[in-house]
């Protein structure tokens, strides 16, 4: 691990352990709440997918509710076929109904622990690092029941307002190295990342591909229906079947549910531990303050007692620090009675008071009276 990695890890550990772990507990609670919110969203998506009506392409009209004016969530599976015309991919020449051409600038960068990026370039010039140029084109297309031959029915697909990812196939992929420029030197100085290559990709939705369309189904004309994307569902066009979509969402919902439960329990334990430690510390400070006040009030009497019996002290009753005065102060919690009042006060006022006998931490001291 590099020095920069080590310093970052130490800073994160110190931040997480601050306030007896309260910061870590609150952070864990925030993650648990976010996981629970995502679980509720995924559960809602799962219910919508499960409630979607299914039918074959030939029986697609049966998916409409009533007169067909009201959209209904439905799922159909079929083969992609162009309605009137199709695209030819410029580089590969393959036929498709949707084309997506992407050019992305790739940067070399320093990555810290967990793959996180810690450099000025990532913080100040993130928009420059993510230079992506995308062109998207589509033509009207339909789903049919058979890959070849005359179909028994069609379902029109409208991708104009679809935000969900499409099941595109990569047909062209090329990495173009970039030449160094004066700007590259400037990027290297202010940060650890600089452009090294341009990734040129071309993806299409090919004709004849079997996919599932799930979304809002409504009548397009007297003989056919149209499916548009539903914003509440994470799928629109997918290679997965409806059952596979439900299984994927159910698995994600279980992970989010148990993750939120575990993180929530952990956050309660951490925050509760921090509260307990804080309350214990406050209680000990109050006890120490009270004992110190009582000790200081009796300090004059202790000095008089010490000065009056200097000649009558036995060897086993001398202070182990100054070896001149009688032992009058006991340290708590160890209970050792080994110091006179002045030496006990001197030890108690040090940054880290320790018992001179057992070297245990001293919380406060107590005046001991002879019977």
TrEMBL record:
Annotated TM spans: 12-37, 255-276
Q: Does the keyword Coiled coil apply?
A: no
Q: Write down the chemical reaction(s) this protein catalyses.
A: S-ubiquitinyl-[E2 ubiquitin-conjugating enzyme]-L-cysteine + [acceptor protein]-L-lysine = [E2 ubiquitin-conjugating enzyme]-L-cysteine + N(6)-ubiquitinyl-[acceptor protein]-L-lysine
Check the UniProt entry and state the signal peptide residues, or none.
Answer: none
For this protein, the record's SUPFAM superfamilies field holds: RING/U-box
**Compartments where located:** Membrane
Q: Quote a single Gene Ontology cellular component term.
A: chloroplast
User: Looking at the Swiss-Prot or TrEMBL record, what is one Pfam family this protein matches?
Assistant: GIDE
Enzyme class per UniProt = transferase
Q: Which InterPro entries match?
A: MUL1-like, SPL2-like, Znf_RING, Znf_RING/FYVE/PHD
Q: Which protein, by its recorded name, is this?
A: RING-type E3 ubiquitin transferase
